[in-house]
Amino acid sequence: MLGEYRIQGRRASEIAADVERAVGAGDLQPGQLLPPMRELATGLGVNPNTVAAAYRTLRERGVIETAGRRGSRVRGRPASTARGSIRVDAPPGVRDVSEGNPDPALLPPLRDALAAAALRNEQEPGLYGQAPVDAEFARLARAHMDADGVPPGLIAVTSGSLDGIERVLAAHLRPGDAVAVEDPGWGGLLDLVPALGLKPVPVAVDDDGPLAGDVDAALAAGARAIIVTNRAQNPTGAVISEERARQLRAVLARFPRTLLIEDDHGHAIVDLPLHPLAGVTDSWALVRSVAKAYGPDLRVAVLTGDAVTVDRVQGRQQLGPGWVSRLLQRAVVHLWTTGAVDTSAVARSYGERRDALVRALAERGIEAHGRSGMNVWVPVPDETGAVARLLHAGWAVAPGARFRMSAPPAVRLTVSSLAMDDIGPVADAVAAAAGPAPARSYG
Predict the structure, then answer these.
(1) The CA-based dihedral angle spanning residues 357, 363, 368, 374, taken in that order and rounded to the nearest 10 degrees
(2) What is the pTM of this model?
(3) Does residue 141 contact residue 155 with C-beta atoms inside 8 Å?
């Protein structure tokens, strides 16, 4: 059952740690069946309840999964294996369009913003016991939310979108709960959900966002939460349209106890309107990171939601980091108030390159998707082969496996580093590597 490996330990914590070390070292492989609890207990000379507790810990950490009488197995994709490792390193001379980073030329200089925050700190030093959210930051963030029709709610600050999403999930769910997630979707999120001991349930998307029928099926089957991307969906560029938002709100209204999490990371790089879903369910949160528009190293995201959710997030924060640096919050305030980023120009710049690439691929008979943001999603018949052929042609792209669960094969290209003169050559390379693909839903 385990080959040459023998699980060790006398206490539940020791047994769980031994299995986790073996998985990380590769001694236990994904999908490998673990011994029945009573059998392992007999072999170790411990009480079966001790093994049961160890297996429970491993499930909660996302290391193993249990399927009733079929026993417990090492997860097919252990939580310790990040999807970011599914990548292609670009050797010298190869253009890298795989990383998903913003265009540095469109990011504002931070010197003045950080200097302004430092000067304010000299006048009003940040100390223990102060409010975790800068008052001006909260006022401006709430005004931006109000302008986009987001329901009223208090403002919290987290260290990026993924941190905010994790805190909301942890505030409401328990290990074993099912969470509906977009497929294809953000690789970091697809790693996070099982790492929290939660069960991801794939929901297909098209250019208008998650399919309402799939969402309905997932919630009817028992998913306790759903995470959606409003705009600039990674990797497909989907945008939740007004009609799709109406459909999704109707579905959510039938499941009012669902935890709804909306990720609007594209709000400052997209010129398409927001159609929020919040307000239909009892528990909800919307998170906005400043990373794409102002710089990934500004680890600041705005989070709003219902009173219980925000209170739980901030309460748990106090027992960990305490707060996100008010220096960074005040630097973001400076960027917002001085108009350091022309959001219309940024959206237009990404849009021109993205739309040009989608058109060029269509002219070459290649299906591609990218309504917003900085990424283009290209379905391919043979993902591994397409990635290898593109690398040989001088282009490093992101394998679709990083972003999908059951969705068909594809590759993702980020347009941030492309000039308009690059569009033709990269489209030629993709067409040669992928070949014409039949029209299909990419979810």
Answers:
(1) 10
(2) 0.83
(3) yes
